[in-house]
Write a structure and sequence with these properties.
The complex is a heterodimer. By secondary structure, chain A is of the alpha/beta class. Chain A contains nine helices and eleven strands. In chain A, the strands form two sheets. In chain A, strands 1, 2, 3, 4, 5, 6, 7, 8 and 9 form a nine-stranded mixed beta sheet that branches. In chain A, strands 10-11 form a two-stranded antiparallel sheet. Chain A is elongated. Chain B is globular, with a radius of gyration of 18 Å. Classes of the chains: A alpha/beta, B alpha/beta.
Chain lengths: ~300, ~210
């Protein structure tokens, strides 16, 4: 058993990426540039891709279940790519209704059925990660109209859209900008995105040259998530040190002396240090004097004559 | 002017072309501080207070606050999501030119900021992702991640609240985030100035100084 303390970083070994974009923009070809990929061809479109690598054509969820039951078959692969995740959810839905017709009256999932779909999808992606696989979800795009603004989102049906967006660590939109293919993980008012690495938009190399593009992104993504964890651990340690120091303060003078130091800290640390100071002041029954710009001992109210 | 992220989010919602439920009067009431909480808001407030200091509201078999009861069983999965080594209700202020924007983070642990939201309807990822609240939080606190924990609440009309399966997800700061915040703030300042509400917000800033 290894308990990871709050002040220690946690590695995110296997991030989940979601790449979406219009049909024909070479999402599948790009997906084959991951490390040791196995593409689960739910859309029956892999034959059109360049740089094709190992592919499992999916006719029904039984094909996926067979793969998941056979760990030896999965061993050679580092990345599993459901292509597309929208169609993957359709196939999963069909399997749920086949198993439990009550969850899908008239072929459409009931509210309870949607819950089962979300749980099954979440469990499945977790299982892939637990098996040590990177996961790249591919989706077509879908344009919705928000008033006069058109917003592009992954084409994923109903309530499962939220589940996919929850599961994905990185969400990137692939689009044409002139003659260039661009992959942008930044959310904008025109498309959704998730960008833990704070990447600028990528110009995707020509498909013939993009044979390791996504493998490199996964590695960079892993590093970025690791850095987030490491940075947070350092701040947690600093807050713990403040907590210890503040707990030892017993007077308004001590707290007031610490305020300028707290104010000079980084934007993430300063509010936490100030909160500790304020809580301590409250515990010591001190009050804030705007006139003195300091904590003071409250003056006793004069007794009424 | 001194402006809260909640006010800015109300303004953003009001400006959405397709929304009909946020009237201009309710926006002006929010800006003027005349906000009258709904039943759902009161329920959410009670829930939030229990999340922050459960020991203060503990009763045999669960928790009570503001006329609402929550069983220990319904709260257990909620507490399991929250690392109590973090700090609750952490306030920060950032100056945007002459204006101050005030944000209160529900929970901070290291560089991870969490927001606790309650809802009476089904989970809608885009509703939260589109919100300017987390963007201002990210711009003001500079966290590495912003996690939304969304708790669907149902009190079945009798004050005994059931917490349904929580939905949690992470959002991250992005390159244009500060610019997006400045653009919305500039639009808001233009609106309140045109409506003559700027005096009120300026007075708040002077009081806080």
């Amino acid at each position: 058993m290894k308990i990871i303390r709050a002040s220690e970083p946690i590695d995110v070994a296997h991030p989940v990426f979601l790449i979406f974009g219009q049909p024909g923009i070479c999402k599948t070809s790009l997906a084959y540039s991951t490390a040791d990929p196995l593409l689960l061809d739910f859309d029956a479109g892999a034959h059109r891709a360049a740089n094709r690598r190992d592919t499992l054509q999916i006719g029904s969820w039984a094909d996926v279940a067979e793969l998941m039951a056979n760990h030896d078959a999965l061993t050679p692969y580092a990345t599993v790519i459901p292509d597309t995740v929208g169609r993957c959810l359709d196939v999963m839905t069909a399997d749920i209704i086949r198993d439990s017709p009550k969850l899908g009256p008239n072929g459409n999932l009931s509210q309870q059925g949607w819950g089962v779909l979300k749980n099954r999808f979440r469990t499945w992606t977790s299982s892939l990660r637990a098996l040590g696989k990177d996961v790249l979800l591919i989706a077509h795009d879908k344009e919705d109209k928000d008033g006069d603004v058109r917003v592009v989102r992954p084409d994923i049906v109903g309530g499962s859209y939220g589940e996919v967006m929850k599961v994905a660590d990185f969400v990137g939109y692939c689009y044409m900008s002139g003659k260039d293919r661009v992959l942008d993980f930044n959310p904008t008012d025109r498309w959704v995105g998730k960008n833990p690495a704070n990447w600028a938009p990528f110009k995707v190399p020509p498909i013939g040259k993009a044979t390791t593009f996504m493998a490199e992104l996964f590695d960079l993504g892993r590093l970025a998530l690791g850095r987030i964890s490491e940075g947070s651990a350092k701040v947690t340690t600093a807050v713990d040190e403040w907590r210890t120091a503040v707990a030892a303060m017993t007077s308004a003078e001590e707290i007031n002396r610490a305020i300028p130091e707290a104010q000079a800290l980084s934007p993430i640390l300063a509010p936490q240090a100030k909160k500790l100071l304020m809580d301590r002041a409250k515990a010591l029954k001190l009050v804030w004097s705007p006139a003195a710009s300091a904590f003071v001992i409250p003056q006793p109210v004069a007794a009424a004559v | 002017m001194r402006i809260s992220t909640t006010t800015l989010e109300s303004y953003r919602l009001f400006m959405q072309p397709d929304q009909e439920w946020m009237t201009e009067q309710s926006l002006i009431d929010t800006i003027s501080g005349k906000f009258v909480p709904t039943e759902a808001v009161l329920r959410g407030k009670a829930f939030g207070e229990i999340v922050e200091t459960p020991e203060a509201y503990a009763v045999p078999g669960g928790y009570q606050r503001g006329g609402y009861s929550f069983s220990a069983e319904t709260m257990a999965p909620v507490f399991a999501l929250i690392d109590r080594r973090g700090l609750f209700e952490v306030k920060a202020i950032r100056a945007y030119g002459p204006h101050d924007v005030v944000a209160v983070a529900d929970h901070l642990l290291g560089t991870h900021l969490s927001e606790f939201k309650t809802t009476g309807s089904t989970f809608d990822f885009d509703k939260y992702a589109a919100s300017c609240q987390w963007k201002f939080m990210a711009d003001i606190f500079d966290p590495a991640t912003i996690t939304y924990h969304v708790f669907p609440l149902d009190d079945h009309g009798n004050g005994v609240v059931e917490v349904k399966t929580p939905e949690s997800f992470r959002l991250y700061p992005y390159a244009a985030l500060h610019q997006d915040c400045c653009t919305l703030l500039a639009s808001f300042v233009g609106y309140v100035t045109a409506k003559g509400l700027d005096t009120l917000l300026n007075a708040r800033q002077q009081e806080a100084a």
